[in-house]
Amino acid sequence: MSARGGEGSGMGIQTPLSEGQTPLPDYEVSQYFPRSRDMTPEERRELRDQYGVVRTYFKSRPGKYRDVQRWLNQARIGTTYDIYLTHSAILAMVGGAVGATVGLLLTFWLANLGILGGLTSPVTAPSGITALVSSNRVLFAGGASALLLGGTVGGSIWALRYYYPRNVVANRERAINVVLPHAITYMYAMSYGGMNLVEVFRALADSRDTYGDVADEFDMIVRDMELFGNDLFTALRNARNLTPSDNLEQFLDDLVSVLDSGGEVTSFFEDQSAHYAETAKDEQEEFLETLSVLSEIFIVAFVAAPLFIIVTLMVISFLGGSTLTQMAVLIYVGLPLGMVGFLLLIDVLSAPFVQTGGVTLEEKRAEPVDTTPVEDDERFAAYRKEQRHERLVELASDPLAVVKATPWLSLVFTVPSALGFAGAVVFRGYATPSVAGFEAAPVVATTLLVVLPLLIVTMPLSYFHERKRRREKVLAERFPDTLNVLSSANYMGIPLIDALDMIARWSKGVLADELRIVRNDIHWNHDLTEALVGLGNRLKVPHLTRTIKLIAEGGRSSGDMSKILAIAAEDTRNRHRIDRARQRAMSSYIAIVVIGFLVYLMVIVLIDASYFGAIAQTAADAEAVAQTQAPGFASLSNVPLDTYRALFFHSVIIMAVGSGMLAGKLSDNDAISGLKYSIGLVLVAVATFVLV
Predict the structure, then answer these.
(1) Longest dimension (CA), the chain
(2) Neighbour-count burial for 578-602, b at 16+ CB within 10 Å, e otherwise
(3) Sign (positive or negative) of CA dihedral 68, 69, 73, 79
(4) What is the structure's pLDDT at 129?
(5) Per-domain boundaries in the chain
(6) N or C: which end of the chain has fewer CB within 10 A?
(7) For residue 203, which of 190, 192, 185 has the smallest C-alpha distance?
(8) Is the Cβ–Cβ distance between 276 and 181 less than 8 Å?
């Protein structure tokens, strides 16, 4: 929507310039935002009567919150700054009140326990004030707790709400910068096919499923012209002023210059496509540097730091302290939550660089056929029966087809199997699911009750997931070359259906099978666009589906399929290069993560085998221990070695699972891809403890 929208629009500014204000240059969005000015008491009273005290405060200070309004516009949050900040203030006050109430209740609870009775003031004060505070400890402690907790909760809510739009804008900026080269390629193909510029923008705006936030930006341009009656230049300038992406802003500036000078738009799109492909590559390299830093942070935070803390707590325990609870909290709560948080952080940073899944192109012929007119025909029942028979035959020939397409469905079978296996182990008495059982035989009990059920669940899931990813990688590698061959063949005068037949006969694998389906589809139905749309929906690879949409739409608007195919091939190749660059750059850091786990495993095994073994041998002779132990030290016979062994082994298993999933997240931006690493590391850990 244009920056000139009214108060209810959500994307515009709610009040016009007041009389006497000096407008800014036409090329600045700030011209639509009112500046702060002194208001008369009557004007303030009218605003309070109409909007209330809180909203009037924000509404009368637009200049102070200019950035918030711009963030809201760029984040496409459908509200104006004064409404948004009013809601934020109300939420902050409610949160502060709840926090203050919790603080008071906490104070009275501590007072009932007698904890507040021994408190003394750390600050020197006159005797009168000290006596007053001492006689009213609960009152002053409650007030301090209410202020502290209420202020913290309320201030946190306000800060989160205030800066939330800016975070959304930052994410949208990265997403736009990543997809922009492909969107420009799409516009180039549509323009080359003969569409005028407005039709190109409309086609891109309708492609939200494949071009995401870039499509939203161009949808704003189209709506600015169609709903508000602005001309193309005004709509482009409004979009330029409101977009969060500097790259898109520069692109729109250059486009306006080309249009203003009467230049060739198609050639401009071609040049810009190559330029922004390089820009996307540079952004990817910067992101990979961030991932490399995060992988090194992981080694420090989840290998070195836990080892230091565990050894320190263990030494304190040997000196007579009680540290088992702290160590258990670190291993069973701190490590898992820390690793999950780390994976979520990488996921948030990676989100703008990933094409979202579930991309489905609109297939017109996929609409259900109305069979009502023929249901009374005597042949209809036989037809339905034959359909059911064919589906049953297809299911019997490949019963795992659904699981292959959706690996998560394997959990329907593996989770009950894992639970059944664990139940059988307990029933047969091989292991006991209790703290005492894990302490008595930590490796055996954990392997039978945790590791093996975990492998039963994860190994099929990992297998089918890797099988699906391998199919996608093969398609991504071969698709650009296939498009180039089709383009060359079509350029030499070979009809597309004959070229498809030629490639299908010479090729093998899943891509060859799909090309044969497309060839037959075109031959039988004589509809190239719908055949390609069907191909895109069957492949289920988001960036390939985007490319196929480009070919289908370009073929609909142009008779020169050779050029359209060449454009699509280059777009697909650019995407594949970026993915390969990430895998190559991250391979060394995956090795670092794996080596970090092996170091952790080695230290834990050395402590268990060398240190605990020596302690156990020494503790076996109680008299010798009593003679050699220094006064004041705890008896080594009281050290819970079995508990420590169980904690150490469990920490290694948790580290194995977390390190493997992190490796998958770094290489493929998919934690499930890291299951293969997790499975391998878990097996190494179990084998090491069994052998040692």
Answers:
(1) 105
(2) bbeebeebbeebbebbbebbbebbe
(3) positive
(4) 55
(5) 7-14+29-169, 176-284, 472-570
(6) C
(7) 190
(8) yes
Give residue 148's identity as a one-letter amino acid code: L
Nearest to 334 by CA among 315, 309, 299, 314: 309
Indicate the residue type of 471: R
Contact 248, 74 (CB under 8 A): no
Cα separation, 458 vs 679, whole angstroms: 8
What is the spatial distance between Cα 342 and Cα 294, in angstroms, rounded to a whole number? 9
What the block records as the tokens of 346 is 């990488």
Residue pair 479/544 in contact (Cβ under 8 Å)? The answer is: yes
> Distances in Å between the alpha carbon of 180 and those of 80, 173, 272, 551?
28, 10, 10, 18
* pLDDT, tens digit, 9 for 90 and up, residues 504-560: 777 777 788 888 888 888 888 777 778 888 888 888 787 788 888 888 877 776 667
SS3 of residue 460 by DSSP: helix
Structure tokens that stand for 283 in this block: 């952004």
266-284: b (≥16 Cβ within 10 Å) or e = bebbbebbeebbebbeebb
Predicted model pTM: 0.72
| Paired tokens of 554 | 């370009």
CA distance 412 to 130: 67
Alpha carbons 579 and 364: distance in angstroms, whole number? 32
